[in-house]
Structures are given as structure tokens and as C-alpha cells.
């Protein structure tokens, strides 16, 4: 993913499931609690977080949360 990718396109790359993960992270839940809440394995949540960060071209989950919150996606 390049840094020049425009923001609406980046937002379109996120699935509803990924946005749900971001919303729960924004609420302060740790990965294991997110997994329980969404009835997923911890590993699946970790993979989704990694994929979100890759798609948004950020280095940390908190950056993805801030990015999505600023755009009112979560």
C-alpha cells in the first residue's frame, strides 16, 4: 500500500468486520476481549489488525483507530 493512496479509497478497502474490530479497539478492549466479543479466535483478530494496518499504511493499531475515528467510520 502506498502513502499516496487517497483516503476514500483506503476506507473502502476496510470490511465491516475490520471496522468492527477497530470500533472495539477504540473502546479500549484488548485483543482477547475483541476476539470473545466477536466470537473469533485471538489469532484471527490479530490477523485482521495486521491487515487493517497494511491497508491503511500505518504501523500500529492505535494509528488505524485514530484514522478511522477522524473519518467517522467508527
Describe what you observe in this structure:
It is a single chain. The chain has 74 residues and is mainly alpha-helical. It is built from five helices and no strands. The chain has helices at residues 7-12, 16-26, 31-38, 42-56, 61-70. The protein starts with 6 loop residues before the first helix and ends with a helix. The mean pLDDT is 89.
Q: Helicity level, as a percent range?
A: 55-70%
Content-based structural category: mainly alpha
- The portion of residues forming beta strands comes to under 5%
Q: Give the overall shape.
A: globular
| Terminal-residue CA separation | 22 Å
Mean of pLDDT: 89
Helices and strands, in order, run as: HHHHH
State the helix count. Answer: 5
User: Low-confidence parts, pLDDT < 50 over ≥5 residues?
Assistant: none
Organism: Amycolatopsis thermalba
Keywords: DNA-binding, Transcription, Transcription regulation
Protein name: LuxR C-terminal-related transcriptional regulator
Pfam families: GerE
Amino acid at each position: 500500500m502506498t502513502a499516496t493512496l487517497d483516503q476514500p479509497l483506503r476506507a473502502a478497502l476496510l470490511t465491516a468486520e475490520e471496522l468492527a474490530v477497530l470500533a472495539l479497539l477504540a473502546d479500549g478492549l484488548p485483543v482477547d476481549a475483541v476476539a470473545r466479543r466477536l466470537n473469533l479466535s485471538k489469532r484471527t483478530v490479530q490477523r485482521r489488525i495486521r491487515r487493517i494496518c497494511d491497508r491503511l499504511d500505518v504501523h500500529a493499531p492505535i494509528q488505524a483507530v485514530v484514522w478511522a475515528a477522524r473519518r467517522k467510520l467508527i
